[in-house]
Amino acid sequence: MIEEKENIVCPFCGCLCDDGVVKVEDNKIVGTRNLCRIGHKKFESAQHGRAESPRIRKNGELVPVTLEEAFDKAAEILVNAERPLFYGWSATCAEATQVGCELTEACRGIIDCTATICHAPSIEAIQDQGAPLSTLGEVMNRADLILYWGCNPMHAHPRHMSRYSVYPRGFFRKRGRKSRTIMVFDPRRTDTAKLADLHVQISPASDHMLVHTFREILNSYDVTHETVAGIPADAIRETMEAMAQHQWCILFFGMGLTQQMGKDRNIDVAIQLMHELNKYIGIRTTLMPMRGHFNVAGANITICSETGYPFAVDFSRGYPRYLPGETSAMDVLYRGEVDAMLNIGANPGTSFSNRALSHMAKIPLINIEPHNQQLLQISDVVFSPAMVGIECEGTAYRMDNVPIKLRKVVEPPENRLPDVVILTEILKRVKELKGKGA
Q1: Which CATH class is domain 120-289?
Q2: Are 44 and 20 in contact (CB under 8 A)?
């Protein structure tokens, strides 16, 4: 008999859509409703291609062992390391990240999350400037001007436009799409741009100049150049005039803005533009980074609440230090400064540089990941945990920093423990080995 479980949160992207329906028969997921194609695929493939758990590398081969032996080996690796790295955290729950922070401090290591290679510049800019933020609920009910800058939600966040920003009927936007104006700023003619009322096709790596030009117009300065960022000056003035006709504006921005020349300075000026739109024209303006993994925002929030800093936190001196560019995961691996690593809820094999991966292959690596991935080839201890939001519960933070409780849908396979339990057992043994007690 097929059971339909309703109001299931999708643990794929930062949208955390919470209206999913998952069909279960004999503890197997057989179908879904109300999810995008990517969310459906995550539930559909969750019980397939699972890594064998637990395993330890012996004589060059990963061999099955008991959970107790795997916990002991992982703790031994971390205790013997002088400067271990704890990386990932974006595809696990906030409760696991809390334990991870305690484990990092106990080992005097470095804790960093996947934001270090995507939206770290956004966090740094918000630390510098502050930011006018809002929730996705406010966007749905109030926004009549939607700006997408350097992102393509049609592919990266497929339900973002239909559920939160463009198409839903809101309390003050009862006509849905007809109540809103959509502007896309992107060098590419993306599928999102094709749906927009205005596509500003700027030259690559010139976003900073265009934002500054908008600010010059707002502050009544003359634009002396005929074109800026490949856009005629008159067209820029017309775009600003069109923005001024609205009441409530939201800027969604992605890695097209954070991962190009300027990085956090691009976000700095974008925040200032939002403030000045509100100051000089009277538009209610907010902005929001388009966070990728389902709990990457939660990783930053949890690490910050536990240590005082959002990512790249170094405990090597016994207290937390925050030096992005020095204590970031990619940098310490690139320089060969860490001598052990624990990876959880991430796949750095697809995003780290060859030099960083080369150093990872030289040091002991503990990998906590439910499915087979490239990193298994160089891992020394492997745990295949229960999947958060599918096989166990947990808390995740949506891209607007709203906490959402993830529900359990099916029972996990044998020897698949939640991330929280795995990390807690490792921490217990680390404390015992260091003589601090359980």
Answers
A1: alpha beta
A2: no
